[in-house]
Amino acid sequence: MWFNQVANAPIPEYKRAWFRSANFRRALSEAINRDDIVRIVYNGHAQAAVGPVSPANKFWFNAKLKAEAHNPRAALDRLKADGFHLQNGVLLDKSNNPVEFSIVTNAGNKARERMSVLIQEDLGKIGVKVNLVPLDFPSLIERISQKFNYEAAMLGFRNIDLDPNGQMNIWLSSAENHAWNPQEKSPETPWEAEIDKLMQAQASTADVKKRKAAFDRVQEIVYEQAPILYLVNQNALSAVSTSVAGASPGILYPQTFWNADHLTITGTASARR
């Protein structure tokens, strides 16, 4: 989930000020109960997400980072640092504007619709009012990539490569899918500039240790700044017949058939036909 920080977006400036605050973003992350999402939405077949890399990607995952713990009290303390305060159960900013925003997501995606409801309930407990706006997929993409007419969006970025170079289209500030400050010509913040530098550095060397160190730091910055709130990593469940030999499920889609040219069928003659 990420928030609209576009300067010319049709939302009030005071709301953009919320979304531009790392304290605000981190506080919302702390208020979300990821364990409930895992239990209720995925029946336990997921785990709380730490950042842009799944722990299944053992080499590139920064194992020093831990998923944001559910801590509403800490969230409120963090918000107080930015002048937010509770009044009669409603969270107000320093100008006494009630904190209320909408989340757009794609209609018909049951998991995201359920996650949205749980997030709505969690944020309500710290006085934040969340309105849910499910949209058909073409309308959703138009809103977040062309009109920028949204406040928060919930979608999924799917890694197509184990290597971080497959994420250049998200992390570079000038990249097409740079979600939180889209269409910027140069980094708006020092931390975005640091991510640019690190991603370019890891892409320009063959030294695996240097690449690992650079991308570990990228993950740390993303954790600290929370431009995207990562929620869960869903487990990939594969069922393979005992008559199939050579099956070796991977961590990227398609998990079971990535090595289809090496799969064979064993067993009786009738099974082979």
Would you kindly provide a written description of the structure presented here, covering whatever features stand out?
The protein is α/β, with parallel strands linked by helices. 37% of the residues lie in helices and 12% in strands. It has helices at 13-19, 22-31, 34-41, 72-80, 110-124, 137-147, 168-171, 190-203, 208-225, 269-272; strands at 2-3, 46-48, 85-87, 90-92, 100-106, 129-135, 152-153, 232-234, 244-245, 264-265. Helix 5 (110-124) links the parallel strand 5 (100-106) and strand 6 (129-135). Helix 2 (22-31) runs antiparallel to helix 4 (72-80) and helix 8 runs antiparallel to helix 9 (208-225). The model is unreliable at 269-273 (pLDDT under 50).
Key terms for this structure?
4-stranded mixed beta sheet; 10 helices; alpha/beta; 12% strand; two-stranded antiparallel ribbon; 37% helix; 273 residues
